[in-house]
């Protein structure tokens, strides 16, 4: 079984993906971390972010089952990841690796921005998780503040809106719901409500796939 979750930053898709993976006994991959891992390696080695051949070489040596979310969460790594994500050859290589991860038994939960449309178009269940920009900015601000990291709501809101624009208008694999994806708007939901709604969506999709 493959479960695909797409959506903009801070929509809650990552938390939901981890919960769904645990609930259904599947492996989990945050595909955004694959871009962050490549970006982090390039930054650490002082290599240019625009050299596609070098970025692909780095990607081919990643262990997708062992990506450290905490180490890759730095803002500068996120900005670098967004820049290298426009490299078509790198995207193709990472999609190949992500797809191979998903197809290993017993299946997986993948979250990102093009899972249902590009990486796993035949996924058992597809969810497009979203929330208003203001709700997402508040969540990100609260998350950072809870870790003792100073965060400004307005700056985060502007950053999220800029990323939304960049992700939804890029030429390769733009952020958009798959045609048969189930929309899950978490603006007014707490995480427990969102999780229950997501499980219901997946269960219905499984029954439809079996029948």
UniProtKB/TrEMBL annotation:
**Positions of the Cytidylate kinase domain:** 3-202
The residues listed in the UniProt record as binding ATP, with positions renumbered to this chain, are 7-15
Q: Which reaction does it catalyse?
A: CMP + ATP = CDP + ADP; dCMP + ATP = dCDP + ADP
E.C. designation(s): 2.7.4.25
Which terms does the record give in the GO molecular function aspect? Answer: ATP binding; CMP kinase activity; dCMP kinase activity
Q: Is Ribonucleoprotein given among the entry's keywords?
A: no
What family is it from?
Belongs to the cytidylate kinase family. Type 1 subfamily.
State what protein this is by name. Answer: Cytidylate kinase
């Amino acid at each position: 079984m493959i479960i695909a979750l797409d959506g903009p930053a801070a929509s809650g898709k990552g938390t939901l993906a981890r919960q769904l993976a645990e609930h259904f006994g599947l492996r989990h991959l945050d595909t955004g971390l694959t871009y962050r891992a490549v970006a982090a390696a390039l930054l650490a080695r002082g290599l240019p972010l625009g050299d596609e051949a070098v970025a692909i070489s780095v990607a081919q040596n990643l262990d997708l089952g062992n990506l450290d979310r905490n180490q890759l969460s730095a803002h500068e790594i996120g900005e670098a990841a967004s820049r290298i994500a426009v490299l078509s050859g790198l995207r193709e290589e990472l999609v190949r690796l992500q797809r191979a991860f998903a197809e290993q038994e017993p299946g997986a939960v993948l979250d990102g921005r093009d899972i249902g449309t590009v990486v796993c178009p035949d996924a058992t269940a597809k969810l497009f998780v979203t929330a208003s920009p203001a709700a997402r900015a508040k969540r990100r601000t609260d998350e950072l503040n809870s870790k003792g990291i100073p965060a400004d709501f307005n700056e985060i809101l502007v950053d999220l809106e800029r990323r939304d624009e960049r992700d939804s208008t890029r030429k390769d694999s733009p952020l958009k719901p798959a045609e048969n994806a189930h929309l899950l708007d978490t603006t007014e939901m707490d995480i427990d409500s969102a999780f229950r709604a997501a499980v219901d969506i997946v269960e219905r999709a499984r029954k439809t796939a079996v029948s």
